[in-house]
Queue: 2 jobs
Job 1
Amino acid sequence: MEYLWLVLGLIVLIVAGEFLVKGAVGVALKFNISTLVIGMTIVAFGTSAPELLVSVKAAIEGHPEISIGNVLGSNIANLALVLGLTTIVLPINVQRSTIRLDWPIMMLATIAFSLFIMNGIIDWWEGVLYIIALIAFNFFMIKNSANSIEVNDEVEQEKSNKNFLKNILFVVIGVVGLAFGANWLLDGAVQIALNFGVSEYVIGATIVAFGTSVPELVTSLVAAFKKQTDISIGNLIGSNIFNLLAVLGVTSVVKEIPVSSQVQGLDVYWLLGISFLIFPLMIFNNRINRISGLILVVSYIAYIYFALK
């Protein structure tokens, strides 16, 4: 029965995330917010909402290892598995802003995470720092994109005016669906961990992390198959920034997160290593090719092997 709850939770999270993103984008366009800001804020929130809901619920119910495993595993999956598979299908061009702004911010947030966990716990005040950093990042994005509203936004805004109530309904459905999906996924994951005697952290870093990264994986692969090169590495880096600043930030404010020796040891080095690895892959001709994608996928397989070992 626990497998049914796990799969059902994953499906509901994916569908609810789609409803939330679609509705939120429609509402934002109604108020004349640029598509750039929507992509880096609302869509980033929508695709990371499953991680946030699962992590907060896990912490409240006394399963903090699932919380931190979910974030760490999701970030590794985004950069290694999702980005790797996407570039194997279609090489990705890297925007200059990704190299100069997005990657350094993600790397700073990741390094801060590695420092926060050195004392074996992520305190509430460290979560507050993360939340402040998230607000500052979003403010910076909005301020610098104030003059970047696209011509198509006017057309989209006119359409959104006609569908405003429908978009509000989508947001409500998405929020409710995420709450139920997170509940079912967490219940199933905890029971599976108990059945097999596997640590909650390992379940969080593998099964739960993969599940909550499915929206990014599906979106990126579909875009690659359609040869929509506007789906770039910046989107995945933005998701990782949100996972660290928002998910860990909010979760640790709600309840301080204890950190196991496994996270402090090998796993955090995997996160730091893969986060740094994509930098030389990006700067080579400002493009991540299929060979680089294969390297990333192999690195993810290696991570899963050592996590389960």
Note: The radius of gyration is 19 Å.
Job 2
Amino acid sequence: MSLESSLENATKVYQKLQKDLTNAVENLQKLDSQLQENEIVQKEFNLLKDDSNIYKLVGPVLIKQEKVEATENVGRRLDLIRSDIKRVDDQIKDLTEKLEKKKIEIVQLNASLTQQETKS
């Protein structure tokens, strides 16, 4: 494989990694927003009395829900969101490392190509 095609392939992989990283960062931002919203709901639930009425929106209808059940649902949702945030954080770290390695490879290929053209 020629240096030009190697450089072209490495550049394509680099661009794909950049796109994947951008998507992962956007996912992380959405998850952070969901986490904040659910933490606010949890704090509000903590302020309520045990006999308070809680309603859950299901489609166009409000359905009465027990405080214990609603609190547990929010707690489970928070756990799920936190585990998703950890997974996406790990994915971002992995993609960042791959991007750095690919960047170094591209620089080396560019240097080799320039050196080869200089010799010609």
Note: Strands lie at 54-58, 61-65.
